[in-house]
Design a protein that fits this description.
This protein is of the alpha+beta class. The chain has 18 helices and 26 strands. Strands 1, 5, 11, 14, 22, 23, 24 and 26 form an eight-stranded antiparallel sheet that branches. Strands 2-13-25-15-16-17-21-18 form an eight-stranded antiparallel sheet. A hairpin with a 2-residue loop joins β8 and β9. The longest helix has 40 residues. About 15% of the residues have low confidence.
């Protein structure tokens, strides 16, 4: 202790004691001062040590606090740094134990302060390892990294749910799913299934009489590049001025009337029996043809000749002038082979059951109060009421000085994605160089949205055909057996792309893809009528007074089907009544067409779910009626379809430009076009 005031003042001047310490020494007992100083220095030392531990040690804040508390209870001064006369700060304890080596009277205040600071420095130096003696910035960076790692651990702990939490989440999710299912089930029961176009057919457009042209736009201009016809399509004004479009009402004489059978049930039974009988005969014929082909192939192998099976079966000779001639020979052979089947149908009436019948006009204009109305003219019935009329739309063409003919192309104003399309014809364009068509297309998106040719004639063709044209992935190799009375068109003689040599392999045109390498370009998949082969198109059709064509485009029921009925006496009663009542103001008196009562179609094209042709290939199409000449089809086939004309006129264009009398037969005479769509209903 300081022995006098001057010593205390000297200690204060050299910094060993503070002013407060000096004041304390001057007014208090030195022993009490030493104890107070020791306690104060101990607290400061512990605080500094705690701060260093928080910065340097790899311990948490909780562990640091525990260390600080431990140091306060038992502060230890490293032996190497403590003076020999003082081994502990526990002065009071030494007094109680009677330790004579330490006497408060011999320890000055400055010495105690110096020793405390020395002990703190010594302890701090021992706590610092060699790897921790860096700059303060490095220590702070280490602390920040530790804090970041600790935060990351906390976040991971929060993100990682416990087993109980997982089970709770799964239970809640399962409960939500059960509630949603019950709500959906209740909604289905109350609201029912979604609406689909599966109901009965309802009339959408009845294109008859003077209003016929209201459903179409007249295209004006040259033919498309793809068709390249030898003609000019003209506007309605020009067509009317040139008298190539007209609406005419005619009196139906007895010779134009048809036999109508009164027993609908008997007719439907006969219709189906006749179709089934035809299929049996067709099956036997095809078996005979296959047997003949197999025998021909066997003979070719045994003889060791160079004649291929396909050549023998198709009667292809070495002197053929072109592959097109070979295709013609195939067509003629098919026609001849079908003659044995269709001959009976020509001489016998379709209705096998004997039943009462009567003659009447097939589709007369409506009669109201003894007056016949036809949207174009009014004809008063005779005294006996026998003057029955029918109104027709005429579409033809006329010659020009330049050569190409003026013609008509009607483009429907409504777009369709399904429907039943019916056309009642009394005459269609026919003859060398003609190319008429009644079809569905979306020409701006061809062939992406497809094309369906309902009626299409080329030159002297006499058998009805229906063709589909699409992009890739639309094949007709999954047609149900016994679902149609027709066959597929053939694709024979296709030139090889590299060598140009015709491929005489016999193939059916079952691929609707317009660029299929094994078919003619844009041939598509083509269904050909067999039951009425040689009598269902062109000149023979016109001689029979026309006929009725129908195409059912029904993606919901996964098919496109097509029928032809000629003469009109062979039209099913249901179909006839549907057309006759389509214009009735009272909807309850209209007859809905039922295709299941029409017998088997000649063309059946599976489309939609579960088939090899997605329904999306056909959409957004409109009706087109046109009359073309020559072009990429009729003109290409001119030399083989028109051999007589070819002797005098070497091209189809020269023949058409000569304005022959034969082209007077190139006109449409349409009783009406009827478009139906199925009603939307729920399928329970």
């Amino acid at each position: 202790m300081f022995g006098d005031a001057s010593a205390a003042n000297s200690a204060a001047e050299d910094g060993r004691v503070t002013a407060s310490e000096l004041k304390y020494l001057q007014g208090n007992n030195s022993d009490d001062y030493i104890s107070d100083v020791v306690d104060s220095e101990k607290d400061k030392l512990v605080d500094r040590m705690g701060e260093q531990l928080l910065l340097l040690a790899d311990n948490s804040e909780k562990e640091a606090r525990l260390i600080r508390q431990s140091l306060r209870l038992n502060p230890i001064i490293p032996p190497a740094a403590a003076p020999s006369s003082v081994s502990s700060f526990d002065v009071e304890g030494q007094k109680r134990r009677g330790d004579a080596t330490t006497t408060a009277a011999t320890v000055t205040t400055g010495q105690v302060s110096d020793r405390v600071h020395q002990s703190a420095r010594a302890l701090r130096s021992t706590l610092l390892t060699s790897s921790q003696r860096g700059s303060r910035a490095a220590l702070l960076e280490m602390m920040q990294e530790d804090e970041a790692e600790e935060d990351l651990k906390k976040q991971r702990k929060l993100l990682k749910p416990s087993t109980a939490q997982i089970l709770r989440i799964l239970s809640i999710s399962l409960l939500i799913l059960i509630v949603l299912y019950l709500l959906l089930l209740e909604g289905t029961v109350l609201a029912g299934p979604p609406r689909l176009p599966i109901g009965p057919y309802k009339i959408v457009e009845a294109q008859v009489g003077q209003h016929f042209f209201d459903y179409y736009d007249f295209y004006s201009g040259k033919d498309s590049i793809g068709s390249n016809g030898y003609l000019y399509y003209v506007s309605r004004d020009v067509a009317t001025k040139n008298n190539i479009v007209n609406v005419i009402t005619e009196t139906v004489d007895s010779g134009s009337m048809v036999e109508i059978y009164d027993d609908d049930g008997a007719q439907e039974v006969d219709w189906l029996l006749e179709d089934l009988k035809f299929l049996d005969e067709l099956k036997r014929r095809q078996a005979d043809e296959k047997k003949a082909v197999d025998e021909s192939a066997k003979e070719a192998v045994e003889s060791g000749g160079n004649t291929t099976t396909a050549d023998k079966s198709l009667n292809v000779t070495k002197n053929e002038e072109s592959d097109n001639n070979a295709t013609t020979a195939v067509t003629k052979n098919n026609t001849a082979s079908n003659a044995s089947i269709t001959k009976k149908n020509t001489t016998t009436r379709r209705h096998l059951t004997k039943t009462q019948s009567h003659l009447e006009a097939f589709n007369p204009d409506p009669v109201i109060n003894g007056t016949t109305t036809n949207n174009n003219a009014t004809t008063t019935a005779g005294n006996n009421g026998n003057n029955v009329t029918e109104t027709f739309v005429y579409i033809s063409s006329n010659a020009t000085e330049a050569g190409p003919r003026n013609s008509v192309r009607l483009e429907g104003r409504r777009r369709f994605n399904r429907g039943l399309f019916i056309i009642d014809l009394r005459h269609m364009p026919a003859g060398c160089g003609t190319w008429p068509a009644f079809w569905l297309t979306d020409e701006a998106n061809w062939p992406v949205n497809g094309e369906i040719d309902i009626v299409e004639g080329v030159n002297y063709q006499d058998t009805a055909k229906t063709a589909l044209h699409t992009t890739k992935e639309c094949r007709m190799d999954d047609v149900p057996e016994g679902s149609k009375t027709g066959t597929w068109d053939t694709a024979v003689g296709i030139p090889d792309k590299k060598t140009g040599i015709p491929d005489m392999t016999f193939r059916y045109a079952e691929n609707c893809f317009v660029y299929d390498p094994h078919q003619w370009i844009n041939q598509g998949c083509v269904a050909a009528d067999l039951k009425l082969e040689g009598r269902s198109l062109g000149v023979p059709l016109n001689k029979n007074g026309g006929g009725v064509y129908a195409l059912e485009w029904d993606p919901t029921n996964t098919h496109i089907r097509t029928w032809v009925f000629t003469p009109h006496g062979r039209v099913p009663r249901n179909l006839r009544d549907a057309m006759r009542t389509a214009m009735n103001e009272d909807e309850s008196t209209r007859v809905a067409p039922d295709t299941n009562k029409w017998g088997l179609p000649y063309g059946h094209f599976p489309i939609g779910d579960g088939t090899n042709c997605p329904a999306e290939h056909f959409r957004n199409m409109r009706l087109v009626i046109n009359l073309a000449f020559c072009g990429s089809v009729a003109g290409t086939r001119y030399f083989m379809d028109c051999p007589k004309q070819f002797k005098q006129y070497k091209t189809c264009e020269q023949w058409v430009a000569s304005d022959p009398d034969e082209l007077k037969e190139a006109y449409w005479k349409i009783r009406g076009v009827y478009v139906y769509e199925r009603d939307w209903e729920k399928q329970w």
